Amino acid sequence: MVARTAHPPETGHAGNGAGPHRAETTHAQATHAQAARAEATHAQAIAPGAPAPTPPVRRHRVVVLALDGLLPFELGIPQRIFGKAADAAGRRLYSVTTCSVRPPGPVRTDADFAVLVEHGPEALAAADTVVVPTSYELGPVFEEGRLTPELAAALAHITPGTRLVSICTGSYVLAAAGYLDGRPATTHWSSAEHFQRLFPRVRVDADVLFIDDGDVLTSAGVAAGIDLCLHLVRRDHGSAVANEVARHTVVPPHRDGGQAQYIRRPLPEPRQATTATARAWALERLHEPLQLRDLAEQEAMSVRTFTRRFRDETGVSPGQWLTQQRVERARQLLESTDLPIDRVAADSGFGTAQSMRQHLQTTLGVTPTAYRHTFRPRNAGNCPTDHTKPAGA
Question: Using 50, 70 and 90 to split pLDDT, how confident is the model at 315?
């Protein structure tokens, strides 16, 4: 992608005795004088030894595409999560804009009111991330897997390199546009089978809350959009920023398991035991070499019964859950402390730095050192890493 730069017009003109050379010389002298005055003014404004002013942050631009038949709850998720993300200096890290496929005007919802959207599809051209929430009026997108001319024209404004995100059945729009061909994706569990039949080239996983495939991300139904947006904040700016957003939103920063735990199944007996006590016990002992039988003993269950019950409740095995929690603990320590890598590995339960390195590489795609280099300076008050496209791109 090439950043476009505006070039000033030439100042010299033939005629009137002022040729190009003289005009350029005069312009250079004026520019030098202006720079000298600005430097002197700057030196007077900042006292010797005073800290330099906090540099401005170029906000990552999120554009949300509002379609007729939208769910107001899902439309508000990006604004609530991205709009509240701020760095240690309190500077907002994202700007959020909502647009329609038509010129500015009302957009129908599934409720008894419409939403007045003030931006047309042209806003998509400036996006670093485009979010497509669900709609109950997708028409041929849902029924035949094809875009309407109006929707296709809107999506054409999206520039290469833009990160694409869908919430719930917003994945139908990305799939109909071809963005999900050959990729893993998810959608609401109740639509997963239909989604797979309609888009056979998509690798559908109906069990997870969201899928991060780099520049294209999809979430499961409704509230899973919160999980995905928090994940993006965590990916862009680290756990500390994402956790703060989660606290203000009064939601957990990370939910265990996937959609499997929300699919309707026979209800357990009222007095049937759960694995919550064992999970709470394990979280206090992540640094210890926990065994499956240790967790089962906390619930007075056999290992086989505990494993089955644990998977039913969380959607993952006990071993997978422990690894998830240890990765999260390692991330927190890497971001918030200067502990040596070996100590972080021990305190998070991986035992050795090599083991932690392998798990972080598998889960996050980076080494512990690279992760700390990316996120630790930001939490210490330095300027955040830029995750945006070049201005004008």
Answer: confident
For residue 264, how many C-alpha atoms fall within 13 Å in the half-sphere facing its CB?
Answer: 1
Sequence-distant contacts of 25-29: CB under 8 A, at least 24 apart: none
For helices 368-379 and 318-336, the axis angle rounded to 10 degrees is 50
Find the distance separating the first CA and the last CA of the chain, reported in whole Å: 7
Cβ atoms of residues 85 and 233 within 8 Å? yes
Q: How far apart are CA 110 and CA 270, in angstroms?
A: 36
**In this structure, are residues 141 and 172 in contact, taking their beta carbons and an 8 Å threshold?**
yes
pLDDT at 382 over 70: no
Q: Which residues contact 369 (CB under 8 A, 6 or more apart)?
A: 341
Q: In terms of pLDDT, which residue wins out, 18 or 136?
A: 136
Q: Which of the 8 DSSP states describes residue 237?
A: H
What is the C-alpha separation between 146 and 188, in angstroms, rounded? 19
Mean of the per-residue pLDDT values of the chain:
82
Identify which of 168, 203, 207, 163 has the alpha carbon closest to the alpha carbon of residue 188.
168
pTM: 0.65
Domains belonging to the chain, first-starting first, are 60-249 (3.40.50.880), 266-379 (1.10.10.60)
Considering only residues 371 and 149, tell me which one the structure prediction assigns the higher pLDDT.
Answer: 149
Within 10 A of 288 (CB to CB), how many other CB atoms are there?
Answer: 10
The partner residues of 130 in beta bridges, in order of sequence, read: 63, 164
Residue 80 pLDDT exceeds 80? yes
Distance CA 107, CA 244 (A): 32
pLDDT tens for residues 33-52? 444 444 444 444 445 555 56
Helix axes 239-249, 72-82, angle to 10 degrees: 130
Q: Kindly tell me if the per-residue pLDDT of 354 is higher than 60.
A: yes
